[in-house]
Amino acid sequence: MARDGFEIEASLKKKTAVSRSWVLLDHCGRSSILDVDKYAIMRRVQIHARDLRILDPLLSYPSTILGREKVIVLNLEHIKAIITAEEVLLRDPFDDNVIPLVEELQRRLPLANAICQGQAEEEEHPGVESGEENEFPFEFQALEVALEAICSFLDARTRELETEVYPALDELTSKISSRNLDRVRKLKSAMTRLTNRVQKVRDELEQLLDDDDDMADLYLSRKLAGASSPVSGSVASNWFLNSPTIGSKISKTSRASAATTQGENDVEELEMLLEAYFMQIDGTMNKLTTLREYIDDTEDYINIQLDNHRNQLIQLELFLSSGTVCLSVYSLVAAIFGMNFPTIWKQAGHGYIFKWVVILTGVVCSSLFLFTISYARHKGLVGS
Asked: Where are the alpha helices (DSSP H) in the chain?
């Protein structure tokens, strides 16, 4: 009993450790594993518990991209992340589907940091202004990697399903059997589940694209610059100068906001990013729609085949029923002559009468059978 209790406790600790694991990636691509509870995460990134609950793997939430004051909450299938203006927090870093995302972030973020450092050097030379207006915010770079990962993941699952569905449907078309029907049924269920997953991601991107305010909430660097930039031309606060990346972004955004009045209403940069991945996920959705149509066409074809077989059975039953009626008439005549008429005509040398009765009865029954079949063909009950 003590040993069983120890094993249960160890199992619970293991599950708890997995659910508390996060990987932190900064703007330089450096990663570190965090084993902290949700309250530490809430204090670190300053979000509410209801937003963090969206990333709980034990709870079922639809695909969501939320923009908050200082973070972006990202829940896309297995990708559960918190993106700030200078770091990314990913849940369950040891998951097989999350590891490629971490590696891709580690590969791309140092490149972004190099660009930021180059722009920070340009701050020392005010005369050089080229390239500053084209800076891509850190949060959008992390968001792009996440969207690319989830779109590629769903597209790969769709292609795998296609390679299984088409041969199964062709085999079912050639031979209708319980084994083939059960195989197609399982594949259709898997396709329905995958379609729902793709539809959720597509709907979230579409909803985000339809609302400029929601897209504006994702501009973390812009909001950070707006909160710290001077209104009357005074020197900005020093709290953000510890981070050269954020300092570069704030300086760039401050100059841009001084040159134009559109400010936070400009979401064209993010809109183009989201549209690109919306088109990709929409293409995956079209593949699944085409696959479903192919399954529906195959089902219609199989139903037509079954109806044809059913009609052939009905025709066979009609032939057999008609033949049975004619034989019944023939048996009736034989029963009447055999049981109810005297046999005097046999003794009088009139045996030929039996032959004529048999011949005439056969002709009448055959004519009745042919008339029944002709009538059925005339009414379209049987094929010609």
From this structure: 2-20, 38-45, 49-53, 99-123, 138-174, 178-209, 212-216, 220-228, 244-259, 268-339, 344-347, 352-378
